[in-house]
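Would you kindly consider the sequence and fold I have copied below?
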Amino acid sequence: MNRTNALKTVLITGCSSGYGRETARYFHAQGWNVIATMRSPHGEVLPRSERLRVVALDVTKPESIAAALDAAGPVDVVVNNAGIGVVGVFEATPMPTVRDVFETNTFGVMAVTHAVLPQFRARRSGVVVNVTSSVTLAPMPLAAVYTGSKMAIEGFTASLAFELEPFNVFVKLVEPGYCPSTRFTANGGQRMEGLVPEAYATFARPIFAAFARPAQVTRESDVAEAVWLAANDTSGRLRFPAGPDAVALAQSL
């Protein structure tokens, strides 16, 4: 079958929970073929379907990226969603932890993008959607490392868009707001232990209290819908804030 008449295929990283899982479900519901990737595959979190495959992928390992893309075959859209979080005082954050965050959130996104671009360029078709965060829209305390890792992808994506446009390949940004229903805190619990030393306790206390009482929150479905819009956008738009809090921040800039 000619690919212009075939169902479109999306490959999404980080599908074991949160945004990735909801985005995989959303694209599947729209009739797409979905390659849902995760470090430790377990298919029970997603619908059973001949249009949905779960594939192992660790974005920090080049051999894992190559194997996943080989298993996936030709894809039309790649969603770089896999990421890890860290909240805490920079002074108290060990440099190995800083490097771990950048290895996944920054270099992992770049590595997956680097690996998929040859097929997009050769086919003169394809979209890369990079999921960052609303921390790139306004400074947030106790998030210097996480913000740095996501800001790097904002700059990377904006620049990359220029060099790929002549090949009809597009790169987009989705910027989710604060979504307390994800496993962001649980997944980063061990990594974040001891990152608020006593000297910073007075500063940190009201910030954590504010986190517990957000005025607006983002839902996983908000992010899935924004990724869908970004993947199908033909207007040349680069940034897609996701969730009412992120949208409000973006509009205030």
Notes: The two ends are 46 Å apart (CA to CA). DSSP finds nine helices and seven strands in the chain. The mean pLDDT is 93.
